[in-house]
Structures are given as C-alpha cells and as structure tokens.
Amino acid sequence: MEKDKEKYRQARVKAAAASTSQLANEAVVTLVLNMEPYQFREIEHEFVKDLSALMGHEPSAIKILAVRSGCTETDIRIPIDGTDLIEILKSRGKNWPEDVLEFLTKYKVMPDPEAPNVIISRKNPKRSLTWLHLSDVHFEAPTSGTKKNYWSQDKVKESFIKQLPGILTKADLKPDFVFFTGDIASSGKKEEYDIANEFLSKLRHALPKRNDTRILLVPGNHDVDRDVVKRYPREEDFAKSFLKTNDSVFQYLHSPQHEPDRQRMLERQQNFFDFSLRCKPYGQPDLNHKYFFTSIFTHQDVKIGVAGLNSAWRASSDKDRYNLVLGVPQFDTAVRDLENTDLKLLLMHHPPDSDWFITPDMLYQRSNIEKFDFILRGHEHDPYSEMSPFKGKKQYFRISAGALYSSDFAKSFNAVKLDFDTGVGKVFFWRLSENLYKWIKDLEVTSEEEEVFFLSKSLRSRVRRRASSKKAGDSLPPA
C-alpha cells in the first residue's frame, strides 16, 4: 500500500512540474471507459476537470481528441510528463490512493490490453512522412475548357503559390510528396497541361524541400478528351454493353482480340499520358503498367509503396455514374506490386467502392480496399478524412482533398504528417476565403488546428519490423 502511494506521489510531482515548464512534447493516450459514447459526452467536461486535478494541471492542458464506441474508447492529448499517471489509471491496481480509486470508479475506467500504448507526440520526430494533397484544379486555357474559369483560376493560382510557404511554415510541415489526385485539366487538352506544367514548376519552388519533394499525379474524368471519345462511337457503345462483369473486364484488358478496342479507348487520355511523361523531372513515376503506375520509395528506412490507379479510363461523359471500371487486373497488380512495402498508399480520382463504378467492380473494391493503409482521392470536391475499420479486417484511412479550383465548390486542399516512431498522424485542412483571397484553416471540416489519429496496428507493426530488421542488420525482403 505504501509503495503504491509513493509511486503515485512521484508520478503526480512529475506531472505537476510539467505544468510550469515550456515542454514542446505532448502525449496521446487511450483510456477505455465502461459506458456508451453518448453518456461520456454528457460528462466530458467534468471528466477533463477531474483528470486535470489528478495531474495537477489546468483543464486547458488536456484535450479529448476522439471518442469511439466499443464501450467508450477515448484518445486524450496530455502533457508528456502526465503519462505515468495514465499508466497507473490503466493498470486498475487496488492499492492506489483514494482520489485515484474514486476517479477509476466514477468513470468506470477499464484495463484494456488492446488499447494503444502511450504515444508521445514529438515536435520533430526521427522518422516521419509528410505529404501535400491536391486535387481537381481543372486548369483551363483561353482556348479550351468552358472558357469562363481561366481568368479567375489565375487569381486563385497566384494566391495559392504565394501563400503556401507561409502556410507550411506555420504548420511546421515540409512535404516529402505532393499527391495530385486527378482533374488536372478541364477538358484534357494539350494547352491545359502546358498551364499545369507551369503551375507545378512554381509549386515545387514554393515548397520547403523544393527539388527533394516528389510530385505524383493520377488522371480524373476531366483529363479525358471527349472529342476523342466522339471519334470512336462504335468502340464506346461496345464497351458500355460488354463491360458488365469482372470476367468481361479481364477479357477486355488482356485478350489479343480486344487490342484495337483498348488502344482506341486509351487515346482519350493520351494528352494526360504525355503530360505524365513531362512530369518525370518532378518525380512522377513511369506508367509502368501502360495506363497506371506502381512505385516504391525508401524514406527514412520506411519502404513506401504508391499505387497511382486510373479510375477514369472509361470516363466519357456527364453520365459516368454506374459505368466506370477500375478493373480487377489493375487493382490486383497494385496489391501484388506493393506487397512487401511498409506503408501502402492508393491514389485514385473517384471515390473507391462507390456507385461511380459498375456493381461487380465496386463490390470487388469494397472487399479488398483494406489492403491499403491510405486511400487519397478527389472528384466529389468534398474535403474530409475518416478511418474505416471493418470487423475482423485492417483499418485504413480515406482522405479527400476537395477541389483546389471549382467555380461551384469551396476551394480547398490538405496535408498529412505521419510520425512513424509514435504511431500518431495529423491531417491539416485549408480553404480559400474568397472575400480576402486568403487560404485559411478549414474549420468546416475540423474544429481543431489539426485532426489527430492513430496509425493502424498493422501499419505500426510493419514499420517496427522494418526498424528492428534494420537495427539487427537482417536482410529485408525484396519489394
């Protein structure tokens, strides 16, 4: 009993000392409470007040980051020196001082070996990855597109490039990658990609790491030249009638008899393919699978696999919904190529496993999408992020960038920073205030400075295994 009380006293002194210091480090911890989330929300303010009293902090030093079901699993950001107290609470010992036991009983704190351990949030982690996510800019030239947005786009482009360095500095972000998830052009015309090329050159110059930042792109439906689609009406009608099952997609993409149809089908994206080749100096990989790419990078001893999939190869008109095809062969190739990577990223334009695709293709995506850790997409111009857990399967994250330029939607973009050492990720959202032409934090997406989340257990395990192998000098499996 006295030993437990002394351990608690030392932990409390340690936490109290942190309240008067200027520590940059914080910790993210998880507690599981035997109550429903709605019950916790009713007492959340009181919970924070009581927890801060135990730690000897002001309530403002503690922040509830997330509340999930499964009893109530809550992620809490606290000063780093309060972590010993959290471990005491999670241990559910019977000989703790009275105020600790009272807290445990009042909030029904449960021991939970499955809950993430204490995760330290360092300002400058040793192993991290940061990316900038852009989408749907719909570049027009004076002689292309709708010929109405070119002039206002110019103003938006100028404000974005000019303000981006300050935005990234303020958020302490130095992107290693820029991911552009489609609709670079407005109508898939060559002159639009000339403007896009000029934009990417200025963008790279505005990034903190400049030439060390890789820019990766995938096509969207606006990267299809519809004039080419109209040139081959027979091929388009045949594809619509034939591509109804996964088996027919296999035949279409592999059978020699369909080679002429495939060639004419892909012509609609030829200007994008040419632009992709022009972007190699920015870091764009070769289209090693003709109309899509898979690529592997090693970054700070973490093997990163990126699948740049083409969800728009069947896009043709304003009636694409229910008619698009990603294709089992494209999806399976990406999974196979990235099998031995630590972090698996999927870039595509359209929302995966959605009704934009024919039903068999949509269902196949839905059954296999969790083989990737992050799915980054565009198309619907709605910025958001979500963790998607399926029972008995791995967790993965979906993140939509919104539209960097649209005349009908808010102009937006986001960034993500992953700390591999602690297992914490952060998503940052910005939008354009058109009254000021100033890019500001998008408080309509998240009310916080950034959205904090835990990396999945599977991803953390892969990264730890890689680090252990590296430290032990083991040979790693080939990519």
Q: Quick recap of the structure?
A:
The chain has two domains: 2-121, Alpha-Beta Plaits (2-Layer Sandwich); 128-472, Purple Acid Phosphatase, chain A, domain 2 (4-Layer Sandwich), CATH 3.60.21.10.
Features:
Alpha-Beta Plaits; seven-stranded mixed sheet; alpha/beta; 479 residues; Purple Acid Phosphatase, chain A, domain 2; six-stranded mixed sheet; 35% helix; 2 domains; 14 helices
Q: CATH H-level name of the largest domain... which superfamily?
A: Metallo-dependent phosphatases
- C-alpha geometry: globular
What structural class do helix, strand and pairing data support?
alpha/beta
Tally of discrete structural domains: 2
Level-2 CATH architecture of the largest domain: 4-Layer Sandwich
Question: How large a portion of the residues is in β-strands, by DSSP E?
Answer: 15-25%
The biggest sheet amounts to: 7 strands, mixed
CATH domain class name of the largest domain: Alpha Beta
**Count of DSSP helices?**
14
The proportion of residues forming helix, as a percent range, comes to: 25-40%
Averaging pLDDT over every residue, what do you get? 88
| Rg over alpha carbons | 25 Å
- What do we call the CATH topology of the largest domain? Purple Acid Phosphatase, chain A, domain 2
Uncertain runs with pLDDT below 50, 5 residues or more? Answer: 16-24, 474-479
Q: Give the CA-CA distance, first to last residue.
A: 54 Å
- What oligomeric state do these chains adopt? single chain
Task: Give the number of DSSP strands.
Answer: 18
